[in-house]
Amino acid sequence: MNHSRLLAEFCSQISFDNLPEEVVYKTKLCILDCIANIYGSRELEAVKHVADYIRSQQGALQASALGWNFETTVNDAAFINGTAAEAIEAQDGLRFGGNHPGTAVIPAAFAVAEHLGLGGREIVEAVVAGYEAANRPAAAMHPWHTLSGFLPTGTCGTFGAATAAAKLYRFDSNRMLNALGNAGYLLPLSMAEHLMGGYTIKIVQGGQAASAGIRAAGLAGSGITGAPYVLEGSELNGGFTKITTNVEPNMDKIIEGLGEHFTIMDVYFKPYTSCRHTHGAIQATLEIVKREKVSPADIEKVEVYTYGIAVIAVGKGVKDNDTFVSAQFSIPYCVAACLTDGEFGPQQMKEARIEDPGVIELSRKVQVLMDDDLNNIYPDMTSSRVKIFLKDGRKLVQQIDIPKGDPRDPMDEKEISQKVRYFAGDKSGGRVNKVIGMILDIENMANIKELARLI
Predict the structure, then answer these.
(1) What is the DSSP letter of 95?
(2) How far apart are CA 234 and CA 224, in angstroms?
(3) In 263-411, at which residue ranges do the beta strands (DSSP E only) sit?
(4) How far apart are CA 273 and CA 91, in angstroms?
(5) Are residues 324 and 421 located together in one domain of the fold?
(6) 157 and 129 housed in the same domain
(7) Domain range for residue 329?
(8) Same domain assignment for residues 195 and 290
(9) pLDDT (tens digit per residue) in 268-278
(10) CATH of the domain at 62
């Protein structure tokens, strides 16, 4: 069965008029959430350096670097916007695929649509199609793709970005298929080693996927062909899903419920600026802090019980002068920052906060342990239990089974809008409110450039 062709054919036929109302609404929330992350990433010095580099290239003025008040080429705009959407680590995600589709798909769609002068309905179609093309291959390989050393946001995100761009270019199914094939050849390795080591190059995976996806689609439009069996491969066993996993992928996930269920409906949102595996511990800690007056000086130790993958991925501590990437993937740091600040957002990712000796010292009192019961209910539940031992002998305990933002405990329009305002920082409140309103009414926007320039 040619899974690649079936996926391309379906994505090429997606039409705004035929999309369920709830899918259109969820797409608006995904776009709104993506802009929140772009705003929040302006707090990070690393993202400022990327923006300065892109600005220095002085390319053709084709699309907006969202939130940075300059224009550049389509590919460079997608790169900086995808980087900013990824960097603050509060991006949307698919639990079933371990990927973050919005950081690649939405920046690619915005850059291409702005350059072509297209409107909101076309953006919605492109984003929905892009999420299908990013999420389904990721789900077919999860978690083996990541365990094989890859980050699916960068790899599978390129398929999503290519599909979104191809949709905006109005490709038929054959050219859509070539865009997917080309994407499989151009996509980044997106090495998990960089994330686990805390290296800041990790933040560009969304931007690299967005830019590579646009190029893949552009080449397809110029007659360049890619393997029409890019996902499943041929008798040579060289398909993307085969060479980037260490077990046989579940190819049925690529076409399962195609046209009946849109994977964008499975996407979660993040209220906090860190890896999703830390969110149960963060939420539990903040709930304790909210109901109890806990001073860091009164804490003897903290134990966090969670599932096995969380222990491996985010159980480590942070070192002196460590990076914000390490902090985003450290339960000890996240819990210590929550106990110190009573919140967890963009400010907790600033270098000065991560290097604070008091936060570092408190983080060393946090131990992360695997709980067999919690591990046995993963991945259906992503549970974490926080136990704070006070010097006076008291124990404060809270467990979270479904972190906020999961479709089973969703963040609603009001909460995501508030996230945009919170992450926007010092931006004009009136301007931010106008951005929110325009996104929530995006289907009636004739040209996306008006919104892009306002962001």
Answers:
(1) T
(2) 20
(3) 299-306, 366-370, 384-390, 395-400
(4) 8
(5) no
(6) yes
(7) 276-400
(8) no
(9) 999 999 999 99
(10) 1.10.4100.10
